[in-house]
Design a protein that fits this description.
By secondary structure, the protein is of the alpha+beta class. The protein contains three helices and 14 strands.
Amino acid sequence: MTGFEFSRLKGAAAALALGAVFAASGAQAATHVLNLTGSANNVTTNSFMFGNTLYETGALELTGFTPFQLADGDDVEVTVTITDGAFTLPVRQFMYFGLNFSDISGGVQPITSSSNGLFSFDGGPQVGAGCGNCTSLITYVENQQLSFTSLFATGSFSMSEPHQINSITVSYQVNDPAVTAVPEPGTWALMIAGFGGAGMMIRRRRRSGDMVAA
């Protein structure tokens, strides 16, 4: 083998190695395309007091996907179809709606993660959604009706390590200014539990005195 041939082989090997690096880095990010359904008959609701505030919550477990890992840089494209009626939030002054990705139903999500995305309800205009300390997409509505039978959501995620997704829910949290003042930023942390375990989470954080700010 001549020196020229050896140099060519070295160059080809380097190019292959560089291509493998780019392929590996590209493989780290994925787009998860999900078509999910849930029955309005299966919405679970709850209410609880925290301080002088009465919170009302509702959640619906969605089906139609295979569990997967959500990793840094991943995107989601989610179509949700509600059957047997509509998913409806009670009209209150402060209204939060979320699409939650977690390891178990109502599971605590990693606070080292963040999300950014968009919602479109029943084919309407897009609204911004995101979370600064969880793997939910969350939007805020103030004192107006939010009821839908179809939802399209897109989002991207930033996280320190992959998180297993075994449960996806739609959920809400509302409260009325007749009972309390404007919620503190830490109330975003309630969304992390998909609202199912929000009361338990608040009590635990109240004891520790460490509310997570959005």
